[in-house]
Amino acid sequence: MHHISTSKDIEKFGRCDLYHGKWVHDPAGPLYSNNSCPVLSQMQNCQGNGRPDKDYENYRWKPTKCQLHRFDQEKFLKLMTGKTLAFIGDSVARNQMESLLCMLWQAIPVNRGNKRMQRYYFRSTSTTIIRIWSSWLVHKTTEKFDFAPEGVDKLHLDAPDETFMDVIPTIDVLVLSSGHWFAKKSVYILNNKIVGGQLWWPDNSRKKIIDSTEAFEISVATIMSSLVTNPDYSGLTVVRSYSPDHYEGGAWNTGGSCTGKVKPATDGELVESRFTNTMHDKQVLGFNRGIKKKTNKSRVAFMDITKPFSYRHDGHPGPYRSPDPNKITKRSEDGRPPPQDCLHWCMPGPIDTWNEFLMETIRRDFEAHKS
């Protein structure tokens, strides 16, 4: 798999590569169950939605050259004493935040959230975990713009999404999640000019300057440069790399499927997704471009989960995305798959590993920057 590597200076405190390794069977299983966690979205509650197999919960990621410790609730909260952790982005950010909350739930957080911001506060260590929705991380409007009509989403790729910029100074660790919305219908604007669109374009007489993957790269560069030049922000920004989906034989809306996958793929079974690889590489490019502008005391880390998670075609809800007892879970006579979610991750499940990566990333960073 060809992957552009992130620049070495980012991980100068990282003693070894967490993201090179393999999935090993671990009978110890997960740290919570689907019915022990009240904040788990029903769509990710695969066991509660009738998924018959359970072994996908029993794999651990084992890096080749270093230790990835099991998640430890007490150590995590101690590490984050008096600090605020924010997940900003799309529904995959929500998926990761819920996984973290489920692993911390015994510490009994208080919900202090509102519509704009989900917020959980742990009294024992004065730790706050928040989530702010931002589908693209850049400024979005639906007003008419030049030849793009009112209604369709317009992305100003060179302006950050202002909905969260005011809370940035209060955040100690920021986890960004984006990419999947670039497959949705939208218009791309750069320097106040329409430069492209996804599932939207008036006619072939106009030339598109950029496609959706290039728009993604620009958006990542925009958000990173706005964070590393914000004079009031001194936190750690963790960019979680593009989360691979596993629709086979079609896309999410054209009958793609992950039905019947019950364990991680072997090297021989791994289906390369050129689109996923491109999105990953564009994200790395945007990240590296954005952080070159750094003027403040903040730090950055790239959490490179794309390759390890390309093996986990077994970790998605697939057809088990609702508790409806009459849902279709098997292929029809003519081989068509039932409606599927092969993008989000079952909970408990592989996504819990992201928070082990996150804890290790935070630990390394805090050790390297002891004030």
UniProtKB/TrEMBL annotation:
Domain Trichome birefringence-like N-terminal stretches: 15-67
Trichome birefringence-like C-terminal domain mapped to chain residues: 68-360
MF GO annotations: O-acetyltransferase activity
Topological type in the membrane: Single-pass membrane protein
Keywords: Membrane, Signal-anchor, Transmembrane, Transmembrane helix
Compartment list: Membrane
InterPro entries the record matches: TBL (IPR029962), TBL_C (IPR026057), TBL_N (IPR025846)
Pfam families named among the record's database cross-references: PC-Esterase (PF13839), PMR5N (PF14416)
One GO CC term on file: Golgi apparatus
Residue span of region Disordered: 309-341
Homology family: Belongs to the PC-esterase family. TBL subfamily.
Annotated protein name in UniProt: Uncharacterized protein
Organism, as annotated: Mikania micrantha (bitter vine)
